[in-house]
Amino acid sequence: MAKLRVGVVSPEREIWSGEADMVIAKTVDGEIGIMPGHAPVLGVLVEGGVLRVKRGGESDLVAAVHGGFISVASNDVSILAEAAELGSEVDVAAARDALQRAQSSIEAGQEDADIRLAAKRARARLRAAGEEV
Hints:
Blueprint: E1 4-9, E2 14-20, E3 22-27, E4 30-34, E5 41-44, E6 49-54, E7 61-73, E8 76-86, H1 92-107, H2 113-128
Parallel strand pairs: 1-8
Antiparallel strand pairs: 1-2, 3-4, 3-6, 5-7, 6-7, 7-8
């Protein structure tokens, strides 16, 4: 069976690259699933999304992805994220603390775009780490 060649990069580093059977990402137009033979696509990734890379017999690779683009062409999938973090790298305690601070600010009526963004990112990091949010 054909495989996808997948690369996940952010401005800081290459997050992951390898072969996969399927990639699932959330774009501004909705969730998209990419399998070998998929038509070419260019999509804008949502802020605070979770990327899932299905790798056959291995466990899924899961990452918190904060904005950027997904590009698909000829079984090559490129995730160009503004910021990204593998679920296995997430500091769960720090992410829970960031979410709690954001929620406390919202409850205190101090909600603004930065606080909403912090809450989205913290939720995505926790979901990528396999935590319930």
